[in-house]
Amino acid sequence: MSSRWTAPSKKVFRFPNSGDDAFGVGRLFGCTSVIIISSRGVFLSHIWEVPTFVDARGVDQNSDSSLLPIFKFFEGDTDRLGFEVLKRPFEVLSQQYGPEVFVITPYTTRQDRKNGVHTNFRYQEQITRLAQWLYTHFPNGMPRIVGYTRRDQSDVPLPDQGWNGRYHAKPEWKGIGGRAMVEVNMNGTNVICTDGTRVLPDICLREWRLWVEDQVVDSRRFILNEK
Questions:
Q1: Do strands 9-14 and 215-223 pair parallel, antiparallel, or not at all (unpaired)?
Q2: Which of 17, 28, 109, 194 is deepest in the core (most CB within 10 A)?
Q3: Contact predicate 194/200, CB 8 Å
Q4: Residue 179 near residue 167 (C-beta atoms within 8 A)
């Protein structure tokens, strides 16, 4: 999933009927991503650090209105990738498919702490407001906030920043640095169940896993309803 500078982006993928697949967000070098996973597919987004969380001068944007453009962007009105459409029955983020919400956002760095920021996440106040707003749309549970370590472009340079389209990342971060990914296995595992007196019909458990860089931060096995 790619993004234009400063403009937020979003995309929706339906899981395949069978086999493995993966869907991801890159360029997380201080930016934030909202990822929503259901038993039918995944919603990915990328929110640039500037101008949503800080302005061009580096001043934090903490006003109540600073997130309003992002809320409007996610809701989308008649936008086919907006929540108002995606939450409808049988759509990817319908409540019937158990959508779970994750907010991937940077931890506070050592330099941030020297500059007077002492929260766990760099944009704690804004991210908390964002999570609370997301909960109003997906009330199955509060969104899980997942932190990541901010890496600079000496660790993972962007391919369009003077590198002639080639990645020159440090070996330990090549392919994973500054990225979040949802991996899904739709072939599933057949499970035989019994109620103590008889064997019940087999249950096929599919599974998704959410990675942030090289760590699995959550996973879920689920039953694929026919509808």
A1: unpaired
A2: 28
A3: yes
A4: no
The pLDDT confidence band at residue 204, using thresholds 50, 70 and 90, is confident
Q: Residue 161: CA atoms inside 13 Å, Cβ hemisphere, count?
A: 11
Give one word for 215, left, alpha or beta, with left for phi > 0 and alpha for psi -120 to 50: beta
Residue with tokens 């057949």: 190
**pLDDT value of residue 147:** 97
DSSP-derived secondary structure for 10-73:
EEEEEPPSSSEEEEEE---SS-BEEEEE-SSEEEEEEB-HHHHTB-TTS-B--STTTTHHHHHH
Does this model's pTM top 0.90? My answer is no
User: Residue 166's pLDDT is what?
Assistant: 46
Quick check: 49 and 70 in contact, CB under 8 A?
Answer: no
Task: Name the average pLDDT for the chain.
Answer: 86
Q: What is the pLDDT of residues 103-133, one digit of tens each?
A: 999 999 999 999 999 999 999 999 999 999 9
Contact 107, 148 (CB under 8 A): yes
Tokens describing residue 32: 């934030």
Contacts of residue 102, defined as CB under 8 A and 6 or more positions apart, other chains included, come to 34, 35, 36, 37, 143, 144, 145, 146, 210, 217, 218
